[in-house]
Design brief:
Elements (H helix, E strand, L loop, with lengths): L24 E3 L4 E3 L4 E3 L4 E2 L36 H25 L1
Antiparallel strand pairs: 1-2, 2-3, 3-4
Length: 109
């Protein structure tokens, strides 16, 4: 059984260097993935160092500094390596949708 993040097999003539979460670099020599702020070891199934930021001190899952995107990679992504960006992008999308809705309602009155 393979641990999380290990390559089961490679196929195709033009394999991509992008992973499931959109991270780019995989070092075959060391077997590590670079997540723009820290390294992930698929053998250990965890990051080799803690996140340098605590995204939301009021959120208990943010205090787990070895976790990736609040342990929910299906819902969130972390292109910068620091989760505040995934939260900021989500908030920006909500605000933008609210403003757009308000403008459309005002135009229809």
């Amino acid at each position: 059984m393979l641990s999380e993040g290990q390559v089961r097999y490679r196929n195709g003539s033009l394999p991509t260097r992008y992973t499931y979460t959109g991270q780019y670099t995989y070092l075959d020599d060391f077997g590590l993935y670079f997540y723009n702020a820290r390294w992930y070891d698929p053998q250990l199934g965890r990051f080799t160092q803690p996140d340098s930021l605590i995204p939301d001190p009021a959120e208990p899952l943010s205090w787990e500094r070895y976790a990736y995107v609040r342990n929910n990679p299906l819902k969130f992504s972390d292109p910068s390596g620091h989760c505040p960006w995934c939260i900021t992008i989500g908030l920006g999308a909500l605000i933008g949708a609210g403003v757009t809705y308000g403008v459309q309602v005002a135009a229809n009155v």
